[in-house]
Amino acid sequence: MAKKKPKTSAKPKAKPAKRRTAPAKKPAPKKAAQAKRAAAASPRKAAAPAKTSIELYYWPTPNGWKVSIMLEECALPYVMVPVNIGKGEQFEPEFLRISPNNRMPAIVDPNGPGGRPISIFESGAILQYLGRKTGKFYPKDERARVAVDEWLFWQMAGLGPMTGQANHFLNYAKEGNDYARKRYTDEVHRLIGVMNKRLAANEYLAGDYSIADMACWGWIIGASRMIDLGLEFPNVKVWRDAIGKRPAVERGFALGRELREQQANDPKAQEEARRILFGQRARP
Ligand SMILES: N[C@@H](CCC(=O)N[C@@H](CS)C(=O)NCC(=O)O)C(=O)O
Questions:
Q1: What is the three-class DSSP state of 78?
Q2: Nearest CA to 216 among 183, 242, 181, 255?
Q3: 108 - beta bridge partners?
Q4: Structural domains of the chain, ranges and CATH numbers in brackets
Q5: Does residue 78 surpass a pLDDT of 70?
Q6: 107: CA distance to ligand 1 center in Å?
Q7: Which burial class, exposed, middle or buried, applies to 17 when counting CB atoms under 10 A from its CB (0-12, 13-18, 19+)?
Q8: Which atom of ligand 1 is nearest to the CA of 88?
Q9: Cα–Cα distance between 104 and 47 in angstroms, integer?
Q10: pLDDT cut 90: percent of the chain above it
Q11: What is the Å distance from ligand 1's center to 104 Cα?
Q12: CB 103 within 8 A of CB 63
């Protein structure tokens, strides 16, 4: 992950000023390299004043894109802190203090409730928080908000996990797993069918364009590799393409792409990533 100490921790009582002090243990060259990487990935944000920038702990995946897209849509200043999950950076104690589930994305907002820092893990919780904070893409009206929550939770509990499992069995654990492969690809097919019906009479999943659409979009990009949307689910294809053309979505989707590509082109790094990501059990 981040080769720097997070500016804040999950402990809400510590003073922000203290948390911003440079960590003595961290070697300066690594910090500089990381800052350079983050700046290269997102020059506009890197220039934002440190005191107001949200830290986005991130790796370019469908769950990461949800938050990079929301930050871009809201034009919030942020700094991207790479968490290389293929190298195991999600297990570093500094990151676990923010995200105890050893999963990215996570954010640290120096201007949280009451003007104090707050850290948040779980992409759905982050989207809701940013929606409440900015008043954007998450309606205040209770009925409209419930509709957004329905589709957001549908993604969190259904589309995301099922597509993730289907991808695992299709691409990483093919041998002798016919049952699992069928079970998860069927379920992805069913879920996208539900979405296709919803989008037959609605431009977006829940009223206006919202965090529910942002949450689903990256997963539909992934599912597009398994299913021919144009052939089977044309409404989802129209929705996917329209959202993909939004400039903020293009920027959020591009964030850190080069980091992922480096890894994809390195067979050794891929092997290490599989060893780290698969077969995780509780740690002491
Ligand atoms: N429910 C979590 C899921 C996050 C998640 O699964 N992140 C993956 C990458 S897409 C991760 O960090 N994996 C690291 C690991 O498996 O150790 C969320 O929506 O934030």
A1: strand
A2: 242
A3: 55, 119
A4: 31-136+263-277 (3.40.30.10), 142-244 (1.20.1050.10)
A5: yes
A6: 13
A7: exposed
A8: 17
A9: 23
A10: 72
A11: 5
A12: yes
CA distances from 62 to 140, 172, 233, 280 (A): 26, 17, 20, 20
Which of these, 82, 119, 102, lies nearest to 7 by C-alpha position?
119
What spacing in Å lies between the alpha carbon of 103 and ligand 1's midpoint?
A: 4
**C-alpha radius of gyration, the chain, whole number:** 19
pTM of the model: 0.84
The answer to whether the CB of 215 falls within 8 A of the CB of 152 is yes
Q: What is the pLDDT of residues 101-150, one digit of tens each?
A: 999 999 999 999 999 999 999 999 999 999 999 999 999 999 999 999 99
User: How deeply is 126 buried, as exposed, middle or buried, from its count of CB atoms within 10 A (0-12, 13-18, 19+)?
Assistant: buried
pLDDT of residue 262: 87
Q: Whose CA is nearest to atom 2 of ligand 1?
A: 122
Q: How far out from the chain centre does Cα 221 lie? A: 13
Read off the tokens for 248.
């903020």
> Ligand 1 mean position to 201 CA, how many Å?
32
Q: Nearest Cα to 65, choosing from 261, 250, 278? A: 250
pLDDT band at 1 (very low <50, low <70, confident <90, very high): low
Q: How many angstroms does the Cα of residue 223 sit away from the middle of ligand 1?
A: 17
Only one residue has tokens 């769950």, namely 63
Residues with CB under 6 A from ligand 1: 61, 63, 85, 90, 102-105, 122-123, 277
Kindly report the protein residue whose alpha carbon is nearest to atom 4 of ligand 1. 103
Nearest Cα to Cα of residue 258 among 61, 118, 76, 60: 60
> Which atom of ligand 1 is found nearest the CA of 122?
20
